[in-house]
Amino acid sequence: MVDQTAQIQTHTDIPQYVRQLGRNARQAARVLARASAGAKNLALGATAGAIESRRAALAEANRKDIENGRRNGLDSALLDRLELTDSRIDAMAEGLRQIAALPDPVGEISGLHFRPSGIQVGRMRVPLGVIGIIYESRPNVTADAAGLCLKSGNATILRGGSEAIHSNLAIADCIQAGLEAAGLPGESVQVVGVTDRAAVGELLTMPASIDVIVPRGGKGLIERVTRESLIPVIKHLDGVCHVYIDDEADTAKALEIAYNAKTQRYGTCNTMETLLVAEAVAGAILPDLARRFREAGVELRGCPQSLALVAGMNPASEEDWYAEYLAPVLAIKVVRGLDEAMDHIDRYGSHHTDAIVTESITKARRFLAEVDSSSVMVNASTRFADGFEYGLGAEIGISTDKLHARGPVGLEGLTTQKFIVLGDGHIRR
Amino acid sequence: MVDQTAQIQTHTDIPQYVRQLGRNARQAARVLARASAGAKNLALGATAGAIESRRAALAEANRKDIENGRRNGLDSALLDRLELTDSRIDAMAEGLRQIAALPDPVGEISGLHFRPSGIQVGRMRVPLGVIGIIYESRPNVTADAAGLCLKSGNATILRGGSEAIHSNLAIADCIQAGLEAAGLPGESVQVVGVTDRAAVGELLTMPASIDVIVPRGGKGLIERVTRESLIPVIKHLDGVCHVYIDDEADTAKALEIAYNAKTQRYGTCNTMETLLVAEAVAGAILPDLARRFREAGVELRGCPQSLALVAGMNPASEEDWYAEYLAPVLAIKVVRGLDEAMDHIDRYGSHHTDAIVTESITKARRFLAEVDSSSVMVNASTRFADGFEYGLGAEIGISTDKLHARGPVGLEGLTTQKFIVLGDGHIRR
């Protein structure tokens, strides 16, 4: 087992240290790929138990991070995200038990069929191999991401923010205890034990040891990872999500959906940032809706046509159509109809999640087929775009990429499929 | 429609020219994504017709390339690949008609199910968008690749080798005729009309215009593309394929499969390059097999143990275990059993296609589960690893990547899935 006690390591040769983690992970991945669902679930359950029984040690490690953070002037939002409260510790353990309860995706064989040559061809679901997770602030990601990767049979190298290093290493200790209880290699989950930023650069350039990089954090982090990585990245960029209220919308549904998509939570990537309204119904819908938004404290920024319908709205600038506010601010635009709405979404949106409210099946079908986003919805709030709501059980992120996994990425997105061929001495003629 | 007559264009500003192709493609992709299967099939059929009716023009353009090639000292293998014989022209047209006959993957909805919240969640298969194909020599790739991309609803930018530019542009003219007959945008398929190498560098760095790059050609091309591309690449590297003859193999099947996997065709990526034999049966199998290989003119390079069993074999060096010969040469290694065979495949193989010959279901199951290759086979020749043999209809290449498409890539590999959500005014609580 690797030396992975809850202390920051000092290494003069960081590239060498990180490359060794990569070799360890590759070896562990071969064992994990053939580990039984029982062994993996045992490790997840034992990790959950260790997190609960070592609550005091976790809190103590977290206190160190919080104190350092205060000393280094972290703002209160960051300090809040960093904190491991009692309920967050409970949630980590509960999350691991939920992952244990999900079906194991590894080994599933699909589409096995006979070909005219007599061979049988199908596909088998298998782990990706080694997954590198690069994340910021929230220490619970250490447990969540390690749990999802372990269940899907992948080895993991976790690189959290330096501000959370003590918390992350304390959680890593619990994971080590869980792996040991299940007889799985300790190197299945490794937390990078140095805070030097050079470690990230090294991780991104080890394609022989790491199969996929998953960055979780702000735009700056994701852009750096995308730019520097020589390894495929499952990334999640902006969520500039739209609701389009069609001229054939049911007014009551339109009001409910638009209000929910904006106000149910402001800071999430599936929150509506721009509302598009067909001009035929704008006069009937916008004044009511604007009143509700104002009562909720949402600032409204409108196009000239909507400004004419609702008094006291601020004018929207070109930048507002591109904005991911993550705040109680909403841009509103009146459009002629479906085509202009889809043009707007294509031009300004981020291809994350977009919804239409309409009673017309023809327009619903067009919107579903033609809007090129990872989630496209009819008569439902964009806030549903989420791994739990979709029934994936848990998600490692929401991919805005098109290749491989698109939308919420659960266990299946952490696996791949290989072809299997069964014969009985068959040769090619 | 873009100017795309069969002549090489001269552009002083190559980056600007290539970026314009990208913008054209992006626009065409939006139209293609919603084109009906009927329109796409009509375009494919009309292109096939144009290829047949313009046979003389194609031959004339190809003659120019062949003459230039001779003048520039291309070797005979390259000149052969470059040539558009009558039967190759027929094959291009026939290939397009076969693609037209395949089911349209676009719009397929799968897994639509109700969630506890009341929403219905499923996935819809959609085109990737714009695909850049970078290839060498064989002009038939122009028709094959354009056909597959068109059928899967993607716009294509094709960049063939400068040695084939006249042939490629003449084929592009036929495709233009086909698109026009179907009322689809001419920019759906664009052949880069300049021979300057800078055009490739430009294509690889336009992520806003191109969604995926597919390189088809030699190792040098693929390595350059992988290194320089800022766009996801579906790539195909080496095929260092193995057959492992287990100690519980049926001898007759073992002899047939090993012989077929090596000799049915030497130059293909799914040809066996290393034969592994369990030591318990090596004495019974290798002398017979070696005699058959020698009769076929295959040079054998063996490990010390196999040298002791078969007189006159050449000794294999460490490099032989890594070699993709693509020639009548075979490396042979005696191993203790399944574990050593799988270790060897993991260490020296290229994760392309590997086969076991055994009557043991336990060992077959382990080999299928544990060998991490894009195709894993039991009692069948590695030569079956191919889109047609697998029933994919046609392939744009064989991916040795793990993300997205793995193994032969057909129409499905040129698409992605988005989530669709259907509600009836549902909001998140």
Write the layout of secondary structure elements.
The structure is a homodimer of 429-residue chains.
Chain A: H1 14-33, H2 37-53, H3 55-71, H4 76-82, H5 86-101, E1 109-114, E2 120-127, E3 130-135, H6 140-151, E4 155-159, H7 165-181, E5 189-191, H8 198-203, E6 212-216, H9 219-228, E7 241-245, H10 251-263, E8 272-278, H11 279-295, E9 299-302, H12 304-309, E10 314-315, H13 318-322, E11 329-335, H14 338-348, E12 353-357, H15 361-370, E13 375-380, H16 387-390, E14 397-399, E15 407-409, E16 415-426
Parallel strand pairs in A: 3-4, 3-6, 4-5, 7-8, 7-12, 8-11, 9-10, 9-11, 12-13
Antiparallel strand pairs in A: 1-2, 2-16, 14-15
Helix pairs in contact in A: 2-5, 2-7, 3-7, 5-6, 6-7, 10-11
Strands of the biggest beta sheet of chain A: in what spatial order?
A: 10-9-11-8-7-12-13
The whole-number mean of residue pLDDT values of chain A reads 93
Number of helices of chain A: 16
Unreliable stretches of chain A (pLDDT < 50, length at least 5) are: 1-6
Characterization of the model:
The structure is a homodimer of 429-residue chains. Chain A has 16 helices and 16 strands. By secondary structure, chain A is of the alpha/beta class. In chain A, the strands form four sheets. Chain A has a seven-stranded parallel sheet. In chain A, strands 5-4-3-6 form a four-stranded parallel sheet, with helices on both faces. The first copy, chain A, has a three-stranded antiparallel sheet with strand order 1-2-16, with no helix packed on it. In chain A, helix 2 crosses helix 7 and helix 10 packs across helix 11. Chain A starts with 13 loop residues before the first helix and ends with a strand. The N terminus of chain A is likely disordered. Chains A and B meet through strand 2, helix 10, helix 15, strand 13 and strand 16 of A and strand 2, helix 10, helix 15, strand 13 and strand 16 of B. Strand 16 of chain A pairs parallel with strand 13 of chain B.
